[in-house]
Design a protein that fits this description.
Blueprint (H helix, E strand, L loop, with lengths): L1 E5 L7 E5 L9 E10 L2 H8 L8 E2 L3 E9 L11 E4 L2 E2 L13 E2 L11 E5 L3 E3 L6 H6 L1 H14 L7 E4 L5 H12 L3 E6 L2 H10 L3 E4 L4 H8 L5 E6 L3 H9 L1 E9 L12 H6 L3 E4 L5 H14 L5 E6 L3 H9 L6 E5 L3
Parallel strand pairs: 11-12, 11-14, 12-13, 14-15, 15-16, 17-18
Antiparallel strand pairs: 1-2, 1-4, 3-5, 3-9, 3-18, 5-6, 6-10, 7-8
Helix pairs in contact: 3-4
């Protein structure tokens, strides 16, 4: 089969080559992938920020058709159209992932290939209203946004949410989900076009990240501040994200792409009675809840662009430049 293999560091290390088709094992299924989507996690391996062995197949997001079923698997048939849950080893909703939790795509072979083998519990029926590209764009980012908003931050209708750095997959899913649940959503971006497109998607206001956006948030909320901030950037915006919160507000974070450390004014933090929440990915239970939420509200992932697998380097160059608005997808097969 054709697969995008990491053979060295940097974009030059991404090579499409022939590798053996993986065999199903008891309790697993093999999926012939129709599409897969890029995530910043993949970039961390390409850039060497996270270790990956030479020959690794990256990719956490994917959707396709089941083409083989392992011994002992029930309820799944060859020909089923499925989307892959990349959260491995995390079944029930819990405060934190259990021991043994990992994300598909290093060390396990990932979705940037014509076939992938995953545990049977990690494939679920593809939402019927989504295209293959949209279904492939859904898993990691939508699951992360869903858990951040609802399991961790306990977002309620009528609350105000701030999402710095709009344009990436998780941020856009958070915008769509928050709006669908009846929240007011304020976003930031340094790019005018991204701010305009976020407003078209339903954001109530969009501020320039280079300006004093915490002041703009306070003005937009009548001096009260935001109930929830979904921190999608990292240390670069963390302190200003805290400054947006109302007394007793909640900040949920899963990002360190732009700064792995942050400084907190402890006196301001405890006097403000703020709640700081960490999160990452989610359980199979939350994945099912997320898919039901997406179907019930008719949500569709925002697709930035679609590239054929042989042009994967171009796709990653676009992600690396942060030019995208929405998910970048690889078309794998027809």
């Amino acid at each position: 089969m054709k697969a995008l293999v990491l053979s060295g560091s940097g974009l030059e290390g991404l090579v499409v080559r022939d590798v053996p088709v993986p065999e199903v094992r008891p309790g697993t299924v093999r999926v012939r992938l129709r599409a897969a989507a890029l995530n910043h996690r993949d970039l961390y391996f390409i850039e060497g920020r996270m270790a990956a062995a030479s020959g690794s197949i990256l990719g956490s997001d994917g959707a396709g058709v089941v083409d083989a079923v392992g011994e002992g698997v029930e309820g799944i048939r060859v020909g089923d159209e499925v989307v892959i849950n990349p959260s491995l080893g995390w079944v029930e909703k819990s405060d934190a992932p259990p021991s043994g939790f990992r994300i598909l795509g290093v060390p396990d072979p990932g979705t940037f290939a014509e076939y992938v083998v995953v545990p049977a519990g990690n494939v679920v029926p593809k939402p019927s209203h989504l295209t293959w590209e949209e279904a492939a764009a859904l898993p990691l980012s939508a699951l992360t946004a869903y858990r951040a908003l609802f399991t961790r931050a306990c977002l309620r209708p009528g609350e105000t949410v701030v999402i710095p750095g709009i344009g990436g997959g998780v941020a856009l899913f958070a915008l769509q989900m928050a709006r669908a649940t009846g929240a007011r959503v304020l976003v930031t971006s340094r790019v005018a076009d991204k701010r305009a497109r976020a407003l078209e998607l339903g954001a109530d206001a969009a501020f320039d990240t280079r300006a004093d956006w915490p002041a703009a948030v306070r003005e937009a909320t009548g001096g009260r501040g935001a109930d929830v901030v979904v921190e999608t950037v990292g240390g670069a915006t963390f302190e200003r994200s805290l400054a947006c919160l109302r007394p007793g507000g909640r900040l949920v974070t899963f990002a360190a792409g732009y700064g792995v450390t942050a400084t907190i004014d402890l006196r301001r933090f405890f006097v403000g009675q703020f709640t700081l929440l960490g999160t990452t990915m989610g359980s199979a239970q939350e994945f099912a809840e997320m898919l039901e939420f997406v179907a019930r509200h008719g949500l569709r992932p925002v697709i930035d662009s679609v590239y054929p697998l042989p042009r994967a380097r171009e796709a990653f160059a676009r992600l690396l430049a942060s030019n995208q608005f929405g998910k970048i997808v690889l078309a794998i097969s027809t």
